[in-house]
Amino acid sequence: MVLKTTNAAQINRTENWRVLLYGKPGQGKTSAVKNLKGKVLVIDLDGSGKVLAEHENIEVYKFDRTHPTEDMTHVLRELPEMVKDFDTVVFDNVTAFQLDWFVERGRTSKNGIRNEIQHYGDFTNYFLRIITAIYDLPINIYVTAWEVTRDLEMEDGTKITQFVPQIRDQVLNQLLGLTDVVGRIKVNQKTGGRGAILEGNDSVYAKNRIDDRIICKIEELFDFETSPKK
User: Fold this and answer.
1) pLDDT, tens digit, 9 for 90 and up, residues 104-123
2) Which terminus of the chain, N or C, has less C-beta within 10 A?
3) Does the structure show a pLDDT above 70 at 162?
């Protein structure tokens, strides 16, 4: 069987992009949806959809947070047909979904509250299947998450603290690896302006494999440069 290949010169960097923006609650991750072009479908995983009021190009699906597994199955079953009518699908926010999933699983434990060891392994496999199904959709995908810090030990033994999306470490690298642009939202305390860090360092996880920007205004997050990435 001959492998099917595509000449690299024909690859379109901005076709069906995947963008993840993370930061503290209330900093404007959901509001950034207003800057998306075309018709937008928002899967509202945490109830933040109210900030999108009065925008006619945006359709919001209010996710059932009390039955996250069942409703996510429903969403992923319906999306392949629905995406034909939209330009971008938004999953806002996956941190809330993760927390709700563990709450749901806790109800099935012996005491009805505390999660059991097998739940954590189950989530790893489950989340990877979910994100694969989402990223396989033939449409632009925008994902949001809260932020958290994690401790890293460098090769020389130095320990540093890094800002990353608040997703369990067991699935975080796979999620970030599959994503084209990962940005951390920051608010300028003097001006109130919001921006996204798009280039990572030892303290912040970020990446941009679509264009050459290393930082941008939130209003310009989805305005990808048309020039080739160097």
Assistant:
1) 999 988 888 899 999 999 99
2) N
3) yes
The pLDDT mean for the chain works out to 93
Nearest Cα residue to 96 out of 39, 29, 183, 2: 29
Distance, in Å, from the CA atom of 197 to the CA atom of 215, rounded to the nearest integer, reads 5
As a whole number of angstroms, the distance between CA 142 and CA 33 comes to 8
Query: For residue 156, what are the CA distances in angstroms to 45, 123, 164, 200?
Result: 40, 33, 22, 19
180 half-sphere exposure, CB direction, 13 A CA radius? 20
Q: What is the CA radius of gyration of the chain?
A: 18
The answer to whether the CB of 135 falls within 8 A of the CB of 94 is no
Locate 98 and state its tokens: 């993760």
Highest mean pLDDT among 4-8, 190-194, 217-221: 217-221
What b/e string do you get for 11-25 counting C-beta neighbours within 10 Å, with b at 16 or more? eeeeeebbbbbbbee
Per-residue pLDDT, 51: 95
| pTM of the entire predicted model | 0.93
**SS3 readout for the chain:** CCCCCCCHHHCCCCCCCEEEEEECCCCCCCHHHHHCCCCEEEEECCCHHHHHCCCCCEEEEECCCCCHHHHHHHHHHHHHHHHHHCCEEEEECHHHHHHHHHHHHHCCCCCCCCCCHHHHHHHHHHHHHHHHHHHCCCCEEEEEEEEEEEEEECCCCCEEEEEEECCCHHHHHHHHHHCCEEEEEEECCCCCCEEEECCCCCCECCEECCCCCCEEEHHHCCCCCCCCCC
